[in-house]
Amino acid sequence: MKVLVTGGAGYIGSILCGLLVENGYTVTCLDRLFFGMDSIRDIADKITIAKDDIRWFKPEVLNGIDAVFDLASLSNDPSGELDPQKTLAINYKGRVRVAKLSKKKGVKKYVLASTCSVYGFQEGILTEKSSLNPLTTYAKANTLAEKEVLPLADKSFSVTALRQATVYGYSPRMRFDLAINGMVLGFYKKGKIPIMKDGKQWRPFVHVRDTANAFIKVLEAEQELVSGQVFNVGSNQQNVQIFDLAKLVAESINMPFNYEWYGSPDHRSYRVSFDKIKKILKFETKCTPREGAKEVFEALRDGKLNADDPRTITVQWYKHMLEMHSLIKNIEIKGVII
C-alpha cells in the first residue's frame, strides 16, 4: 500500500514515516523541508521525497497513492499568530485542497491531523460530540479544515479527523516549544522551569510515537469504522494540570522542583475523553509523560539533541526565515546578485 504523508519531515511526520516503513508501506513524504532533512535522513533511501507545498504541489504526486496522512501545517499557537492569513491559507485551505485532490485522484483514505486545542476553554470532560471553542488562529484553522473535509467522505473515499492531545517525546525533528519537552529543556539548561500562569489549566498529552500509531490504526481499520469520524487521540490518564505536570517532569529526571512564572494566565484549559478511539480502534497509549520526559532529558544529556538548535523552537525559526527572506528581497532590490 502506498501512503503519502504531508509534513512528513516534521515532528510527528518523521516518526510516522519511519513507522510506516517499518510496517512495510511504500511512503512518499511531501514537505517544504524548512527545517532541513536531518529528521528523515536515516530513511531517505527508503521513501520518495517530494519537496513541495500543499498549496500548489502538482496533483500528479497523488497518482497511485492509496492513503494520505495530512500533517502539513504551521504548527502551534505562537507560530499561527505570526501571520494569521498565511496560517489559514496553509492549515485550512491548503489541507482542504489536499483532501479534494485526494478524492479526485482515487485515494481511498484521507486522515486529517487535527488538535484537541479546538476545544479551547471548557469545563468538564470533552468528547468528540462536545461543542468547539477555538481560541487561536491555529485552532480555528483546524476547526475550519475539519468542517470542510469530513463531508467529502463517501463509500469510496474515507475521511477521518484525529484531534491529537499535546504531543511530547523525542523526535529527530525535535520541538522544545511543546509543554513537556520545553519543561525538560528548562530544567536541563537552567535548573528551573518557566510555567505559564496560573498553572491550573488542564491539558491532555500523548507521546509522539503513540499519536503516530493512531494514524496507522486508522489506516488499517475497516472503512465503516473510521469514515466520516472524529477521534480524540490520547489517554484519559494523561489529562494533567500544568503545575502538577511540571512537578512530575522534575521527579522523572531527578531534578529539584525549581520554577518561575511567566506570561498572562493561559485562557486554554480542557480535559478530554479518549474512550471512543479506545473502544472503536482498540487504541492504547504505551508511553507516559514521566517516561517521555526522561527520554528527552537523556537525549539532551547524551548529545543526541542539541539544546541550542534554533530549529527546535518553531516560532523562532519561522521568524528567522522571514528575516532572511526580507534580507534577500532587499539585496535583490538593490541589484546585487547572490
Secondary structure: elements and pairs:
Blueprint: E1 2-6, H1 11-22, E2 26-31, E3 48-51, E4 67-70, H2 77-82, H3 84-104, E5 109-115, E6 121-126, H4 137-149, E7 158-164, E8 166-168, H5 179-190, E9 193-196, E10 202-207, H6 208-220, H7 223-226, E11 229-233, E12 239-241, H8 242-252, E13 259-262, E14 269-272, H9 275-281, H10 289-301, H11 314-333
Parallel strand pairs: 1-2, 1-4, 2-3, 4-5, 5-7, 6-14, 7-11, 8-10, 9-13
Antiparallel strand pairs: 10-12
Helix pairs in contact: 1-6, 3-4, 5-8, 5-10, 8-10
Give the full name of the CATH homologous superfamily. NAD(P)-binding Rossmann-like Domain
Strand order of the largest sheet: 3-2-1-4-5-7-11
Low-confidence stretches: 327-338
Category from helices, strands and their pairing: alpha/beta
End-to-end gap: 44 Å
User: Number of DSSP helices?
Assistant: 11
Estimate the strand proportion: 15-25%
Largest sheet: 7 strands, parallel
Q: In which range does the helix fraction lie? A: 25-40%
Task: Give the strand tally.
Answer: 14
CATH topology description? Rossmann fold
- Tally of discrete structural domains: 1
The arrangement of helices and strands along the chain is EHEEEHHEEHEEHEEHHEEHEEHHH
Sum up the overall morphology in one term.
globular
